[in-house]
Amino acid sequence: MTHSERLTEYAGYVHEFLDQLLSEKECQGQIINAMRYSALAGGKRLRPALVMEFYRLSGGNPKDALPFAVALEMIHTYSLIHDDLPCMDNDDFRRGKPTNHKVYGEAMAVLAGDALLTEAFALATRPENLEKFTAEQILKATNCLAKNAGVFGMIGGQVMDIESEHKKISYDELVILQKYKTGALIESATLMGCILGGADENKLKAAKEYAYSLGLAFQIQDDILDIEGDAEIFGKPIGSDAKKEKSTFPSQIGLDKCKEKVKELTQNAINAVKNDFEESEFLIWLADKLSVRNN
């Protein structure tokens, strides 16, 4: 199996799981439809792929980690729905389609996000997970997910992002902001895979370092694409950060240095895993692939 085929396989597992999980329930058709609209809209499925791959490298069958991988993807999806709302970024398109609130209205979009967040933790803690994992592993993995999704993780980064609009912040402040806003869920993906697989402390440390470098490189590349990208390929309008007067890495250090930084961080991510994980070729390929992505 090629690395590209493995990534496609992981994405297929996630899509199938979500499709079954978010099936229509009596009297709840509209909210389920709104949840499905965003959750099944595609995307890279990067975060669940990392959960499954780090679990595989820790000795497990990737499909066994699906409840946790999908829970993370549901939280990521809820964050995108809310991020697009008029009270936040006020975006009209996501992944080339109208945003959730443009289709279902603001109230239903808020509830769809809330529902995805709530159902994510129901999924991670469902009793049948005890057939594959110990109670301690489930507790630690779910706690890791909650902390990285909350006020000391993604939400905290989102607050910093809102508070930094229309004003200049330092490069170091921007790094911290993105470490939480973008990097926290990527970190939870790598760590959950290790926790569920019973990885040792050295592997947990390596996974965390990989996530930090990968997440920061991912965000810098996102900022580059907001300037140089193709809107049809990128899936959303180009130049939105400048219009909202957001602090970005290109505005801090320029495009050329941003491109150098992406290469440097990508190499850091590769170095973090190649010694502590056998068969880390997929993670190395993924880091390289994301560093030159156009969407």
C-alpha termini separation: 24 Å
Residues in helix, %: over 70%
Structural class: mainly alpha
Residue windows where pLDDT falls under 50 for at least 5 positions: none
Beta strand %:
under 5%
Radius of gyration: 18 Å
Which features does this protein show?
two-stranded antiparallel ribbon, 295 residues, mainly alpha
Word description of this protein:
The protein is mostly helical. The chain has 16 helices and two strands. The chain has helices spanning 3-21, 29-39, 46-57, 66-83, 100-104, 106-124, 135-149, 154-163, 171-181, 183-197, 201-228, 231-234, 240-243, 249-253, 255-274, 281-291; strands spanning 93-94, 97-98. A two-stranded antiparallel ribbon has the order 1-2. Helix 7 (135-149) runs antiparallel to helix 10. The longest helix has 28 residues, at 201-228. It is globular. The protein starts with a helix and ends with a helix. 43% of the residues are buried. The model has no long low-confidence stretch (mean pLDDT 93).
Short description:
This protein has 295 residues and is an all-alpha fold. The chain has helices at 3-21, 29-39, 46-57, 66-83, 100-104, 106-124, 135-149, 154-163, 171-181, 183-197, 201-228, 231-234, 240-243, 249-253, 255-274, 281-291; strands at residues 93-94, 97-98.
Secondary structure blueprint with pairings:
Blueprint: H1 3-21, H2 29-39, H3 46-57, H4 66-83, E1 93-94, E2 97-98, H5 100-104, H6 106-124, H7 135-149, H8 154-163, H9 171-181, H10 183-197, H11 201-228, H12 231-234, H13 240-243, H14 249-253, H15 255-274, H16 281-291
Antiparallel strand pairs: 1-2
